[in-house]
Design a protein that fits this description.
With about 80 residues, this protein is an all-alpha fold. The chain is about 75% helix and about 0% strand.
């Protein structure tokens, strides 16, 4: 379990430079936050709907999954 968390942390560090400002905000303020901001609050901040934020979050999660999955697959 610790090894998986270490790999995830490393992959997130590698992925950060490739993310845009909104993706970084979602990552830090929603996905990794102890008290995550709601989709509604983010949508109001950015002037978009809650659904649009949810879709951005889903795309970000796919990027994270793709970056990590190859490393964590058993050989």
């Amino acid at each position: 379990h610790r090894e998986s968390l270490k790999v995830l942390d490393q992959k997130l560090g590698d992925l950060r430079p490739q993310l845009n400002k909104k993706e970084l905000y979602l990552l830090d303020e929603r996905l990794l936050a102890d008290n995550p901001i709601t989709l509604q609050d983010i949508g109001e901040k950015w002037g978009v709907t809650r659904e649009a934020v949810r879709q951005m979050e889903a795309r970000l999660m796919k990027k994270i999954k793709d970056a990590v999955s190859a490393t964590l697959k058993p050989e």
